[in-house]
Amino acid sequence: FTRSDLLGVAGHGPEPPRSFAAYKALMEELFNPLRDKALALMQKEPVFRTAREVWKKGQGQANAAIVQTLSPWVVRALQEAYDFSAPPVSFQHAAGFLGQYDMRHHRIIITPRLFDASLKDFLDTLIHEEMHAFQAELILMLSTQRKGRTLTPPERAIAQYWKNEEPKYRSTLAAGSAMSPETKARYRMIGQEHHAWTTAHFLSARISGA
Question: What are 100's strand-pairing partners?
């Protein structure tokens, strides 16, 4: 760690982390409590327990009905825990992707193919894309104040780190589903993707019981 990294991790200034290790430490300090709050909210709602009991991999038609009830609860829990405008979910085929955040229309698009997957896979994709929406909101708040909400110095440091990485993020994302294993490994080391991936993996595994 450099002195600037340590100051950033400690929350003493808005300077973005200068290494992935410093970013990861600050990310965990800021967002792990929010992730844990989202988990607690989901665990107390019977709808998640019911979904875990009745979801059957490969039975897409039956699972589609579960999704219609479950998805709004996921969105609501994440919105409360992370204090952001969590977008609603739309189900339609997205070429090459299981899901994506449509920033223009502020919605999450999930492919119906996931109805045949495991409950963990469905939740993993949905939560992952909601985290991208959360990231986009924080980046926007670097220049636009949200009514009743301003970024703390550590949040500003994280959002600036994400913003600085956007050219690298977009260029890697352009490969889509055709990414090589090496590209996928680098992709997960990009700040936004690492945050979305680790958060979704943590929550989906615990909620689904996988």
Answer: 109
